[in-house]
């Protein structure tokens, strides 16, 4: 070793003398200590191969010499190559690891390591790539001239003439260099941590650690430069490429330690240095991290902590001591000048630096401080960068919104004037953010500037401009609609309506001045405003206020009828409550149409007057409707009915605008919908309503032809808000159809009085367009259908769910006839294709079977999608057996209507045979789905024909089916080359299974003799066994020949054989003979989605042996087939076992230490064993002989098994395990009640309580809803089936109910610890704010409360109950005594926590059920036990109960 080292040292000296490349010198230097650079690199990175290990130096003279040589080369300022070479730093890391700590520290101090580090980082940072980045920042115009000079790279040259920076590392090497430097710093920083050990030199480690701390202790400026440069380089390295290292998370920690260890200086001086050198790169990296540019690590907490400790917290402390301190401005100004986007990062750090105090998010002085931070950041923005300033201000405000921080109103108003509403420019994004933060900026007047009026005026002026079409959605939905909501919150909705009217008047004036008569709708005409008003009007205004608004509109209508018309339209769509309806009545009609006001309406607004009527008819009471009908029939005619009469009946309203035509139709549909039978409104409206249907039929005929010809029908999207006075024909016709089919389907009943052909043609055309719209049928060349793929399909599907349509049998028949006439698209003029009409199948699947009363209609459905003749080829309509056999939807339709089957004329078994042959010869994906559906069709058919087996048609069908089956089976048994295909095997197996169950009846009626049936069944099973044996015998060589079928066909045949043999029964000995062949086949077969190998193994285990070992009960529970396999094996193993053997098997499944309960397959097996056991109560003899049974090895019964499962429930490690155990317990509560004891019931209640507490197992939060519903169902089973066992234990029920109730509430962000301690913290599976409970879970809880307070008779009546005493009344009285505590806790939770509105709504039935059990005395006691806030909530609840929930008799 000595000779090798000496040689290496001599070679190294020679290389230095010859000025050889540094990489070559470094390699020889590594050899001097007996290693190579590759080994050093692996050791420093933690990647050590076999045989390699880090050798700690005992005699470390060579290592010390090499360390000094390396540091000398690194310190040489003239040569940058050593500092920019990653191997240099890895060698340094290696030497520091193998040398004693004090030796390494001494060398680092002597060679001024921190200066080397600083110089290295500065040189790398000014590499060409970094210079380009700095130039880009300079070009952006931010930053002072002095800073630009500081960023300018040095032009100093070496003696060779090249630039100093030109030898810096290449871009691709930067991540490698950063990783190498990081490894050195990790070693150094780790050495500064003292331990209790003693080094080999005899020095205490704490002394050595202090020695090493001297290495990194440097001046504040140098420490700041090092930290800032390092963070900048880290970001550059990450942007070049994602470094493949496991230590990314710890890259910046050592350099933070360097900054924290800098020498003591004036505090403000060090902070200024930090803000100058560190803050800009930190903020840049922080923004990149939060934008998810780097996903392998999360540096945000460390970076935010740096900013907080060195910027925000010192500035806050200085402001606290001296209110005039400007330290914050001095620390943040440079970062803001460089990039105004930094303001939001700084502001968020300032907010997050504040710790919450109790229930308050922040203290008042904290809010004052944050206001100061906001103002300082805003003031630091350069005035010349208006666009970037607006964006930065928006980010600041959004940050305040996210953290629920209120800002000073005066500052917000000034900022709004300066940035959001400057002269000549609008910033709608910023305006929307300001309104979201604090709408009082506009609602509270400003002495200097009326911001609200200016905002509304700008919106109105913008509505006239050409750019409005691009801005309309943003301005209306993000500015106007929220502003209306804030007016309502401020209880000044009438004020907004006044502004609305004023702006409508101004808009109309500006529009006429600009002569824009045909422009689209402006902001104040948008439907979104009317939709928002419908949500706010009644909740926000009293009846008196609504009346006053109408009085005001009556006063304004004479002078401004157009503007008032829009407000009346909005109000008409906002009325719902009964008391408002009674008060208003026909006032809206009177305001609009009395005194000739409607005659003054501009053509732009006339259609809206009709909408006032149609919307009013949706809520008018019968007397008002009758009065309106009287006005309609009055002579002389009054407005607007006079115009209807003048246009005649041939055309509803003549040559009016499309929107007016549409609204007149909507009014007529609404009038017919509101008309009672034989009422005046019906008489007045009927001729016009009939004309509407005629007009719709004509329009649909035209649209179908235009779609066929590819004509342009407009570019509007159906279902969206229309924004034009002249919409396209496509949108107009769809809206007309929507009024009839969706809004007012009652008018369709009137279509039965039209000419039958006209009405059917209308439905036919609608159905054609709908069929051409769906993806399965659509033609890509029709633009309008591509733009509106759901328009007409949704219309058609809606009428199939309409009560008016479903209650009309003739209308249902016409709709079904329309669908059945279009089984293919051959007759559809739009697409003309012979394929199956998928939309017809989907539509028929939506029709309730119970409503199809006509037998002939059901026959047509069963005949549908089958060829008309005996041939299997396509008929004239393009139908063949493929139409059914290859379409799962058609097969599902047949299965659905088998709920009410019919044996139609010509129905025979041959159809099923043709379907099976068609499927077997088709090459389609997922054939197993079609096969399963075809089997079910066959099974249901045979079940039906066997219900009335003595009827001639049924006899004929069964006899013909048996003959065809026998012919096929005998042919297969006689001819070796002929084999039944998999589909025939499946349907024959289903047929034989039904025939076997009716064998005696068939023999008695001389339909099929028992001997013939047994003979053919035996032949069929023998042939299947032979066919299965042939498949299993095939070798790999045979599989490659042409005579073999496809692998999928082969597997389907095997599955069909197993299904048929399993249903018919098979000799175990014959199946056992196939054991070796089956194992060989399973070992070589490739596993597919059919899982053929595992299913064969299951078949062999179930049918090939009388004894199934416990090991065979295992399986894969992640697949359906795996779960079915477990079930089949368990059921087969139960056949020969008595109760004692079943209990032994259950005990063995649980296993020693209950290890089996941690496996899902064992749990499924245990559940099947429990299902198979009889529910018997223990006899006296059994209890006496319990000890003897335990001696025989049986220490388990169903009661104990239940207790074991119950105790495992609240220890479950996964959601699946929890669900299986919970469902098993629920099953036992329902079906094994006699075997369960009082202890089992109490244990169940205790387990639910534990699962609702913080002691719950750590189940996945994403399945919180599933867990809660399982707990509710478990308690529901107890209440329903074991109510009598709760007597004397009702306090446990109350405890469970309170625990479940608590989970429906969400703690406020800063709920006090006392509140959480009192009400309990939520369980771990409900800790995620993204996965909380909703209305569905509240409904389940309300059902539990209802079961307690209003139980069924069967649940509370015992076997020896006295019929003279009401058991339910007794149970209600008992519930009232205990459920008062649930009501009390609900009220307290309302005050301390948050509940979603949908949950509160679903809770109402449960609360009313509790009130039903209370007496006046009990309610007084509850009221006295509450504080003032609780009494207010209780009074509100009881008031609502008395009004809506209390039973008041007749």
UniProtKB/TrEMBL annotation:
GO biological process: ribosome biogenesis
Biased composition (Basic residues): 150-159
Region ranges (Disordered): 136-167
InterPro entries per UniProt: Ribosome_Biogenesis_Reg (IPR052609), Urb2/Npa2_C (IPR018849)
Nucleolar 27S pre-rRNA processing Urb2/Npa2 C-terminal domain location: 1221-1449
GO cellular component term of the entry, any: nucleolus
Listed PANTHER family: UNHEALTHY RIBOSOME BIOGENESIS PROTEIN 2 HOMOLOG
Protein name per its UniProtKB record: Nucleolar 27S pre-rRNA processing Urb2/Npa2 C-terminal domain-containing protein
Lineage, broadest ranks: Eukaryota, Fungi, Dikarya, Ascomycota, Pezizomycotina
């Amino acid at each position: 070793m000595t000779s090798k080292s000496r040689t290496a040292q001599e070679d190294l000296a020679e290389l230095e003398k010859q000025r050889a490349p540094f990489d070559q010198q470094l390699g020889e230097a590594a050899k001097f200590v007996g290693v190579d650079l590759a080994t050093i690199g692996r050791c420093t990175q933690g990647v050590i191969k076999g045989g390699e290990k880090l050798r700690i130096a005992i005699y470390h003279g060579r290592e010390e010499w090499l360390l000094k040589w390396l540091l000398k080369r690194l310190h040489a300022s003239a040569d940058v190559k050593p500092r920019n070479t990653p191997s240099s730093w890895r060698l340094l890391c290696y030497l520091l690891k193998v040398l004693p700590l004090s030796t390494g520290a001494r060398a680092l101090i002597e060679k001024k390591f921190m200066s080397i580090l600083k110089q290295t980082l500065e040189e790398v940072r000014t590499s060409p790539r970094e210079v380009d980045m700095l130039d880009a920042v300079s070009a952006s115009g931010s930053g002072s001239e002095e800073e630009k000079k500081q960023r300018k790279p040095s032009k100093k040259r070496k003696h060779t003439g090249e630039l100093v920076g030109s030898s810096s590392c290449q871009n691709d090497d930067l991540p490698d260099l950063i990783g190498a430097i990081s490894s050195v710093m990790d070693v150094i920083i780790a050495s500064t941590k003292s331990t209790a050990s003693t080094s080999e030199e005899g020095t205490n480690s704490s002394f050595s650690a202090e020695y090493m701390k001297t290495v990194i202790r440097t001046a504040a400026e140098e420490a700041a430069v090092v930290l800032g440069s390092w963070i900048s380089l880290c970001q550059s390295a990450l942007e070049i490429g994602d470094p493949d290292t496991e230590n990314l998370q710890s890259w910046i920690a050592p350099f933070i330690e360097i900054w924290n260890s800098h020498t003591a200086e004036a505090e403000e001086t060090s902070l200024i240095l930090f803000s100058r050198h560190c803050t800009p790169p930190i903020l840049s990296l922080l923004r990149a991290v939060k934008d998810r540019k780097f996903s392998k690590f999360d540096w945000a907490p460390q970076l935010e902590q740096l900013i907080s400790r060195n910027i925000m917290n010192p500035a806050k402390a200085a402001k606290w001591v001296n209110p005039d301190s400007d330290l914050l401005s001095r620390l943040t100004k440079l970062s803001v000048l460089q990039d105004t986007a930094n303001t939001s990062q700084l502001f968020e750090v300032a907010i997050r630096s504040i710790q919450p105090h109790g229930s308050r998010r922040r203290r008042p002085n904290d809010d004052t401080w944050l206001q100061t931070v906001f103002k300082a950041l805003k003031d630091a923005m350069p005035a010349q960068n208006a666009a970037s300033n607006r964006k930065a201000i928006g980010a600041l405000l959004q940050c305040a919104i996210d953290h629920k921080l209120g800002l000073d109103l005066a500052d917000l108003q000034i900022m709004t004037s300066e940035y959001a509403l400057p002269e000549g420019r609008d910033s709608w994004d910023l305006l929307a953010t300001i309104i979201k933060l604090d709408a009082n900026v506009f609602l509270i007047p400003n002495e200097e500037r009326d911001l609200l009026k200016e905002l509304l005026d700008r919106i109105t002026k913008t509505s006239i401009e050409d750019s409005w079409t691009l801005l309309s959605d943003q301005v209306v939905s993000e500015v106007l609609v929220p502003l209306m909501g804030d007016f309502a919150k401020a209880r000044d909705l009438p004020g907004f309506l006044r502004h609305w009217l004023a702006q409508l008047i101004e808009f109309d004036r500006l529009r006429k001045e600009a002569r824009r008569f045909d422009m689209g709708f402006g902001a104040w005409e948008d439907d979104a405003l009317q939709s928002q008003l419908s949500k706010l009007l009644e909740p926000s205004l009293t009846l008196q206020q609504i009346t006053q608004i109408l009085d005001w509109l009556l006063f304004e209508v004479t002078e401004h009828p157009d503007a008032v018309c829009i407000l009346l339209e909005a109000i008409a769509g906002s009325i719902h409550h009964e008391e408002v309806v009674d008060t208003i009545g026909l006032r809206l009609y009177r305001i609009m149409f009395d005194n000739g006001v409607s005659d003054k309406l501009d053509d732009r607004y006339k259609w809206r007057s009709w909408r006032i009527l149609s919307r009013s008819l949706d809520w008018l009471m019968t007397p008002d409707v009758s009065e309106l009908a009287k006005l309609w029939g009055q002579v002389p005619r009054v407005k607007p009915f006079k115009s209807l009469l003048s246009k005649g009946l041939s055309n509803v309203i003549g040559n009016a605008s499309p929107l007016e035509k549409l609204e007149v139709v909507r009014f007529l549909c609404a009038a017919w919908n509101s008309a009672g039978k034989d009422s005046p409104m019906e008489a007045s409206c009927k001729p016009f309503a009939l004309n509407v249907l005629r007009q719709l039929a004509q329009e649909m005929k035209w649209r179908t032809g235009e779609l066929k010809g590819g004509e342009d029908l407009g570019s509007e999207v159906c279902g969206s808000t229309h924004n034009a006075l002249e919409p396209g024909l496509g949108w107009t016709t769809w809206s007309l159809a929507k009024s009839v089919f969706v809004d007012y389907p009652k008018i369709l009943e009137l279509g039965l009085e039209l000419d039958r052909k006209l009405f059917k043609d209308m439905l036919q055309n609608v159905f054609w367009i709908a069929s051409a719209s769906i993806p399965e049928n659509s033609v890509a060349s029709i633009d309008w259908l591509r733009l509106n793929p759901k328009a007409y399909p949704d219309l058609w599907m809606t009428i199939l769910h309409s009560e008016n349509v479903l209650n009309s049998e003739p209308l249902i028949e016409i709709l079904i006839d329309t669908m059945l006439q279009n089984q293919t698209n051959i007759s559809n003029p739009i697409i003309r294709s012979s394929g199956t009409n998928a939309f017809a199948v989907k539509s028929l699947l939506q029709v309730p079977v119970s409503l199809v009363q006509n037998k002939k209609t059901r026959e047509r459905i069963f005949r549908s999608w089958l060829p008309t003749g005996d041939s299997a080829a396509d008929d004239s309509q393009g139908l063949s057996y493929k139409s059914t056999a290859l379409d799962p939807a058609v097969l599902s339709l047949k299965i659905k209507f088998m709920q009410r089957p019919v044996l139609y004329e010509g129905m025979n078994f041959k159809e099923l045979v043709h379907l099976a042959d068609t499927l077997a010869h088709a090459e389609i994906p997922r054939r197993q789905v079609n096969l399963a559906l075809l089997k079910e069709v066959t099974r249901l058919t045979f079940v039906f024909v066997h219900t009335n087996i003595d009827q001639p048609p049924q006899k004929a069908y069964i006899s013909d089916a048996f003959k065809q089956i026998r012919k096929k089976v005998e042919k297969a048994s006689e001819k070796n080359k002929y084999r039944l295909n998999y589909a025939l095997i499946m349907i024959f197996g289903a047929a034989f299974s039904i025939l076997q169950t009716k064998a005696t009846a068939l023999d008695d009626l001389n339909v099929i003799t028992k001997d013939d049936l047994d003979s053919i069944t035996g032949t069929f099973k023998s042939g299947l066994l032979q066919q299965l044996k042939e498949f299993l015998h095939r070798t790999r060589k045979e599989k490659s020949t042409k005579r073999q079928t496809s692998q999928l066909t082969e597997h389907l045949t095997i599955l069909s054989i197993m299904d048929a043999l399993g249903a018919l029964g098979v000799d175990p000995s014959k199946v056992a003979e196939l054991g070796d062949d089956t194992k060989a086949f399973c070992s070589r077969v490739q596993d597919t989605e059919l899982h053929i190998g595992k299913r064969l193994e299951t078949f062999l285990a179930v049918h090939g042996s009388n004894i199934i070992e416990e090991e065979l009960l295992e399986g894969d529970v992640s697949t359906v087939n795996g779960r079915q396999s477990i079930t089949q094996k368990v059921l087969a193993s139960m056949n020969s076992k008595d109760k004692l053997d079943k209990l032994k098997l259950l005990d063995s499944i649980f296993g020693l230490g209950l290890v089996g309960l941690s496996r899902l397959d064992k749990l499924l097996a245990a559940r099947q064993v429990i299902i198979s056991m009889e529910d018997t109560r223990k006899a006296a003899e059994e209890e006496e002989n319990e000890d003897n049974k335990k001696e025989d090895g049986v220490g388990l019964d169903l009661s104990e098994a239940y207790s074991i499962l119950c105790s495992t429930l609240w220890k479950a490690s996964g959601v699946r395990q929890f669900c299986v155990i919970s469902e098993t317990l629920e099953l036992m509560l329902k079906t094994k009640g006699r075997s369960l004891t009082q202890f089992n019931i109490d244990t169940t209640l205790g387990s639910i309580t534990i699962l609702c507490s913080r002691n719950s197992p750590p189940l996945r939060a994403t399945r919180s809803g599933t867990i809660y519903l399982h707990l509710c169902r478990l308690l529901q089973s107890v209440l329903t089936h074991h109510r009598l066992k709760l007597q004397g234990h009702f306090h446990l029920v109350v405890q469970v109910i309170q625990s479940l109730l608590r989970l429906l509430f969400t703690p406020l962000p800063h709920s006090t610890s006392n509140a959480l301690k009192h009400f309990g913290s939520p369980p771990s599976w409900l800790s995620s704010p993204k996965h909380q409970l909703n209305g569905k879970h509240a409904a389940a809880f309300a059902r539990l409360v209802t079961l307690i307070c209003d139980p069924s008779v069967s649940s509370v009546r015992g076997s020896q109950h006295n019929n003279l005493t009401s058991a339910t009344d007794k149970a209600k009285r008992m519930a009232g005594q205990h459920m008062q505590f649930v009501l009390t806790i609900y009220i307290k939770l309302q005050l301390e926590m948050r509940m979603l509105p949908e949950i509160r709504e679903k809770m109402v039935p449960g609360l009313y059920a509790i009130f039903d059990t209370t007496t006046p005395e009990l309610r007084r006691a509850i009221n006295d036990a509450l504080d003032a806030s609780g009494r207010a909530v209780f009074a509100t609840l009881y008031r609502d109960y008395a009004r809506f929930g209390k039973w008041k008799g007749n």
